[in-house]
């Protein structure tokens, strides 16, 4: 990738990447978050890669026939892992094993569903086909975690394709440090710790403090063992954290 010199360069790249990521093209999203990895999802990912390539599905350029494979961060429902979601349909498979992969690829080619791998609603006893209809997800409104399970956290192009680094570009092109701090204060953004300290005030105090050098550190400590709040975001969408840190660094000077 050549160096981006302007907002226009970033937007042109985003449009190109978005075009290449045809929303109607089918892809298999394999959760590779900590929970699913512990249950063997990396082996499942490797099996999908081998099976898709063996059948020649990865080389077809027409949107209807090609199948893409994507490793993703945590989907959230770790207890049911390894998780696999076929998009754009949103077909949700749980506790997938390596030996299940050929059957899932068969279903991809035929347009069917592997019934035995579907989630079963413990209340109704009915099988649930789509991720959005799984009770665990049904009433969730994801903001920070909206792209978890949809982008490859190791690929910056995936992040840019869904609008990543747009905020940073706007800040550098259109706003001064004081403007950024004012925006953060007006937003009411607070820390997620127990104190809930206003982020804008924290940035303002840092900007006003004396000193030739200032530092922005990422506190990724899991204060509540097993809660995995920071882990989910850092594993699933690390560039969103980096973008926020750069904006913060610009604001505090």
Helix and strand arrangement:
Blueprint: H1 7-20, E1 26-31, H2 34-38, H3 41-54, E2 67-72, E3 84-87, E4 91-93, H4 101-110, E5 119-120, E6 127-128, H5 135-138, H6 156-161, H7 166-174, H8 177-187, H9 199-208, H10 229-236, H11 238-252
Parallel strand pairs: 1-2
Antiparallel strand pairs: 1-3, 3-4, 5-6
Helix pairs in contact: 7-11, 8-9, 8-11, 10-11
Structure described in brief:
The protein has about 250 residues and is an alpha+beta fold. It has eleven helices and six strands. It has helices at about 5-20, 35-40, 40-55, 100-110, 135-140, 155-160, 165-175, 175-185, 200-210, 230-235, 240-250; strands at about 25-30, 65-70, 85, 90-95, 120, 125-130.
Overview of this protein structure:
With 253 residues, the protein is α+β, with helices and mostly antiparallel strands. The chain has two domains: 22-161, Glutaredoxin (3-Layer(aba) Sandwich), CATH 3.40.30; 166-252, no CATH class. The protein is built from eleven helices and six strands. The strands form two sheets. Strands 2-1-3-4 form a four-stranded mixed beta sheet, covered by helices on one side. A two-stranded antiparallel sheet has the order 5-6. A hairpin with a 3-residue loop joins strand 3 (84-87) and strand 4 (91-93). Helix 10 crosses helix 11 (238-252). The model has no long low-confidence stretch (mean pLDDT 89).
